[in-house]
Design a protein that fits this description.
By secondary structure, the protein is α+β, with helices and mostly antiparallel strands. The protein has helices spanning 17-27, 38-46, 96-110, 125-133, 160-163, and strands spanning 8-11, 50-56, 67-75, 79-87, 115-121, 137-146, 150-158. The relative contact order is 0.14. Bound molecules: coenzyme A (COA). Residues 1, 27-28, 84-87, 92-98, 120, 124, 126-127, 129-130, 133 line the site of coenzyme A. Coenzyme A binds at residues 1, 27-28, 84-87, 92-98, 120, 124, 126-127, 129-130, 133.
Length: 168
């Protein structure tokens, strides 16, 4: 759908934290108490078990390094948790979300972590469609997960299903 956008994925830096926190507030946490403020985003950039990445690129009216999207993933003992992922509304359906997720999945597999989980707001059917399209299965529903205001749909993907299928 539409044209693909020229963008690059890179590790986010503390100077990006304000833009990332603002995107999270506008695009993910709207209507909820803000939990991803600037200090928390910076903490995740510095934590050894987390990674914060950004998609940057030139779009009409934007600078070359404009923040188009971002994602935050936390690596746990045997699994990784996708905490946040968002793309600016006017840059959607240009494969940026898919690119950010693929980058994180590749990193997880390289680290020997094959199981990825995430939560989506129940009313966010667009994101649910996005994750289903990209191989994630709906595992559960968590009542009141978002500050008691909204339920969550829990999605997960076992990357081994895809990485071993040619070796039967
Ligand atoms: C979910 C989100 C990250 C997708 O980003 P994106 O860059 O538009 O996604 P892509 O262009 O890579 O889409 C990949 C595929 O997912 C599916 N998809 C994406 N958005 C969709 C939508 N609104 N409705 C239905 N399917 C959708 C499509 O199959 C799409 O492929 P296609 O465009 O070739 O049909 C973006 O909509 C977003 O930022 N939403 C707000 C924040 C959010 O909900 N984050 C997730 C929870 S943390």
């Amino acid at each position: 759908m539409g044209f693909d956008m020229n963008y690059e994925i890179a590790l986010a830096e503390p100077a990006d934290a304000q833009g990332i926190a603002s995107m999270s507030e506008r695009l993910i946490e709207y209507g909820l108490p803000l939990s991803w403020d600037v200090p928390r985003v910076v903490r995740h950039m510095r934590r050894r078990d987390s990674i914060v990445i950004k998609a940057v690129g030139r779009d009409s009216g934007r600078d070359a390094d404009a923040l188009l999207g971002f994602a935050i993933m936390n690596f746990q003992q045997d699994a990784a948790h996708l905490s946040l992922l968002a793309v600016e509304p006017d840059c959607r359906r240009r494969k940026i979300g898919r690119g950010l997720l693929a980058w994180l999945e590749e990193t997880a597999v390289t680290a020997g972590t094959f199981f990825i989980s995430l939560e989506v707001r129940t009313r966010n059917t667009a994101a649910q469609h996005f994750y289903r399209t990209l191989g994630y299965d709906e595992m559960d529903r968590v009542v009141g997960y978002y500050s008691g205001i909204e339920d969550a749909v829990l999605f997960a993907r076992d990357l081994r299903v895809y990485t071993t299928e040619n070796f039967d």
